[in-house]
Amino acid sequence: MKDILHKEQLMSYAEQLLAPAQVEEIELSEVISDAHGDTHIWGITCDTMEEYWLIEQDSPCALFRKSGIYALARHAYEAYLEQLEHKDVRSELNDRQQYMTS
């Protein structure tokens, strides 16, 4: 029951991001455990027949269209890690800039 509710929550989240498309199916594709903890990668199929990867750690984090370089779940996960890395660098630069201007 808990798993069904969780999938429905993820579907709702994905539909908000992908509107007006409707999510027809969501399935757990892969679980990756590393220094960042457990990451669940969900495969999503929409009524438009487009497919996406939903990356979830503690909460839904990122959505990648399943095509080209993101055809594999692992590649989408690696892109997600790069986004985190760039976000951390930008945050650090902003912190330094605020310190220098105060």
Question: Please, could you describe this protein's structure?
Answer:
There is one protein chain. By secondary structure, this protein is of the alpha+beta class. It has one domain (2-101). The chain is built from 2 helices and 4 strands, in the order H-E-E-E-E-H. The protein has helices at 2-18, 73-101; strands spanning 23-34, 37-46, 51-56, 60-65. It has a 4-stranded antiparallel beta sheet with strand order 1-2-3-4. Strand 3 and strand 4 form a beta hairpin. The termini are far apart.
Q: Quick one: how many beta strands?
A: 4
What structural class should be given to the helix and strand makeup? Answer: alpha+beta
Strand content: 25-35%
Helix content: 40-55%
Low-pLDDT ranges: none
What is the element string, with H for helices and E for strands? Answer: HEEEEH
End-to-end separation in angstroms reads 53 Å
- Strand order in the sheet with the most strands: 1-2-3-4
Shape: globular
Mean pLDDT: 87
The number of helices is 2
From the alpha-carbon coordinates, what is the Rg to the nearest angstrom?
A: 16 Å
The total number of structural domains is 1
Describe the sheet with the most strands.
4 strands, antiparallel
List keywords for this structure.
single chain, 102 residues, alpha+beta, globular
Secondary structure: elements and pairs:
Blueprint: H1 2-18, E1 23-34, E2 37-46, E3 51-56, E4 60-65, H2 73-101
Antiparallel strand pairs: 1-2, 2-3, 3-4
Concise account of the structure shown:
The chain is an alpha+beta fold and 102 residues long.
